Amino acid sequence: MNPKVDWFFDKAEKWREEFIKLRTLALDCNLTEELKWGCPCYTFQKNNIVLIHGFKEYCALLFHKGVLLKDPEDILIQQTKNVQSARQIRFTNVQQIDEMAAVIQAYIQEAIEVEKAGLEVDFKETSEYDIPEEFQVKLDENPYLKAAFEELTPGRQRGYLLHFSGAKKSTTRERRVEKCIPQILDGKGLHD
Question: Does residue 97 register a pLDDT over 80?
């Protein structure tokens, strides 16, 4: 146990018992406990394996390369349609964790084996994402904007494309594009 991570468990009002059970299961797999993104993260040779996190309706184990796991129990969940690599196992009570303890540890062991084998996730290329029409019009009109967007890292490009595409209405997409143009021209990502 890493004392720097204790505060996460101490402050937890909801899911405390579940978090502690999940912590024990992860540590029993000889993983190193670290604090990343404000959550307990369990690593093998400095590579992220699994993370514990909680939400309003459930708590979960997040497998960083979950898409590469076999999932014989069909329990891995893709958190949103845009998540390419990570997969969750979700829990709503401590009894589920107790009943699934052996399965959970088997999944953790498989995730460790994936890391030992050096397997990597094939991420979708930025060029495979749809460019919303409202943004494409601006790129076509403004060569400086197009050049600035192409200079951004692939992750920053994806961030903008997902942000623009996330709006249901064309007017909202237009507003988002207009608001982000200065930031793109400055070479910054959506959250920089």
Answer: yes
